[in-house]
Design a protein that fits this description.
It contains 5 helices and 5 strands, in the order E-H-E-H-E-H-E-H-E-H. By secondary structure, the chain is an alpha/beta fold. The chain has a single domain (7-138), classed as 3-Layer(aba) Sandwich (Rossmann fold), CATH 3.40.50.280. The chain has a 5-stranded parallel sheet, sandwiched between helices. Helix 3 (72-81) links the parallel strand 3 and strand 4 (88-93). The mean pLDDT is 93.
């Protein structure tokens, strides 16, 4: 079993510049023992994929407060095309319930709505990464 710290890329895709929440999550995940790479806002999908590859992350966390979550299925496709489909993708912010099924169907592992505790976010990330590491160890 791999005991190295979980590497998490936190980012905002699209035009949403509200970053208070993602900065709080970054601090919480660092406090939980994870290595966090926090990008500036307004990232492009290809840039996120490139950073994920270069930084060898196990998790990509995306914050969305203004419908930028709607481009996440494109990100999931680019990750598969780049052979990064083992990266856990989580999403947080203002995500309308009607959009949740299509996001989960695209491969998003978890969606965190406002009010989710930092402990719950860290715990779910750990569980998803542990499951992926177990599958990789068996394969």
């Amino acid at each position: 079993m791999n005991d190295s710290p979980i590497r998490v890329l936190l980012t905002k895709i699209g035009l949403d510049g509200h970053d208070r929440g993602i900065r709080l999550v970054a601090t919480g995940l660092r406090d939980a023992g994870m290595e966090v790479i926090l990008t500036p806002p307004w990232m492009k999908i290809d840039d996120v994929v490139w950073i994920a590859l270069q930084e060898d992350v196990q998790v990509i966390g995306i914050s969305s407060l203004s419908c930028d979550h709607l481009v996440v299925p494109k990100l999931m496709q680019r990750l598969r095309e780049s052979q990064l489909d083992d990266v856990v993708v989580v999403l947080g912010g203002i995500i309308p319930k009607c959009d949740v099924p299509s996001l989960m169907d695209s491969g998003v592992a978890a969606i965190f709505h406002p009010g989710t505790s930092l402990d719950q976010i860290a715990s779910e990330i750990r569980n998803h990464v542990a499951a992926r590491r177990l599958v990789a160890a068996i394969a």
